[in-house]
Design goal:
This protein has 317 residues and is mostly helical. It contains 15 helices and no strands. The C terminus is likely disordered.
Length: 317
């Protein structure tokens, strides 16, 4: 109690204490050494010893994890998509609208369920990937003399990606609330991990389904639009953001940086005479798909820990 006094004093409930203990390296074996069945049993005793007045004050400072998105949050997450729809209708204005969309995206990610502390590195790589999604395939084709550069060619798929920000925020909030709700019924850290992994899979699958529907709609409205590359990019960005939101910005940034480097190599190969370079869409699908698989494996390992769902780690929802 003396060692973890600050964490205990600010805890809202016993389950937050269990997550905090796991973050400090206390596992079920250590709890059994202290004559408790698991970390959750130890947390219940520690929570019972915290003065009630301190607990009530701390609880009042935090909004509930499952609260619905506010109107301002919804509007912020819809704004980048609205800007992209505008750019799709005005191809000549694609470049200036892209700048406005980038600013709107930055504003949306500063709050709400997708807000992540210490994720600046991951954000920079994400902007690089989005830039390649908008202009990369056309640039590769132009550099390899396979066609002329068309600044507005990727706008429809990019608009679908931007519009997927709203379902991404809703699913991120749902996952945070669903995972935290499992802290109570779980009988140990392994139980908690087994309960959280299917919910993480549901969040990832739900986002992939929403993005696919948006991409198919964009293809129907625009006549044609790529599917595999922007779908892989969207799942990569969503998985990376979940990791960053729940306190793991390092792996998120590494995955995005690797994908960005692979896409940059495609541009170099396209510009070098005598070298074969895959099409921009193929390179994007391969790079983002591989990085998404690696980050998904990391997410199933890291986000199944109770420590990933502490309010101080997961951010304000």
């Amino acid at each position: 109690m003396h060692r973890h006094q600050a964490m205990l004093a600010g805890a809202v409930d016993a389950w937050e204490i269990a997550a905090g203990l796991e973050a400090f390296g206390v596992n079920d074996g250590e709890a059994r050494r202290l004559r408790h069945r698991d970390v959750f049993g130890l947390a219940e005793e520690l929570y019972a010893r915290v003065p009630r007045a301190v607990r009530v004050a701390a609880a009042g400072e935090r909004p509930p994890a499952g609260a619905p998105l506010g109107r301002r949050t919804v509007a912020l997450h819809l704004l980048p998509g609205a800007g992209c729809v505008l750019a799709a209708g005005l191809p000549a204005a694609a470049a200036p609208v892209a700048v406005l969309v980038a600013v709107a995206l930055w504003a949306a990610l500063r709050g709400g369920p997708l807000r992540a502390a210490h994720a600046a590195g991951a954000g920079l790589w994400a902007y690089g990937l989005l830039g390649f999604a908008l202009y990369g395939p056309q640039a590769v084709a132009a550099l390899a003399d396979r066609g002329r550069f068309d600044a507005g060619a990727g706008t429809a798929a990019f608009a679908a990606l931007a519009l997927s920000l709203a379902p991404a925020a809703a699913l991120a909030r749902w996952f945070a609330a669903a995972a935290r709700a499992q802290l109570g019924p779980s009988h140990g850290l392994a139980d908690f991990a087994d309960a959280v992994r299917p919910r993480l899979a549901a969040a990832l699958a739900g986002y992939a389904a929403a993005l696919t529907a948006l991409l198919l709609t964009a293809a129907a409205l625009a006549g044609s639009a790529p599917l595999a590359a922007p779908a892989a990019l969207g799942v990569l960005l969503f998985t990376a953001r979940l990791l960053a939101v729940h306190g793991h910005p390092g792996p998120a940034a590494a995955g995005l940086a690797a994908a960005c480097a692979a896409e940059g190599l495609t541009l170099v190969l396209a510009a070098a005479p005598g070298h074969f370079a895959p099409s921009g869409g193929t390179a994007q699908a391969a790079a983002c798909g591989a990085a998404a698989l690696v980050l998904a494996a990391q997410a199933f390992r890291l986000l199944a820990r109770a420590a990933a769902h502490r309010p101080a780690t997961a951010g304000r929802h």
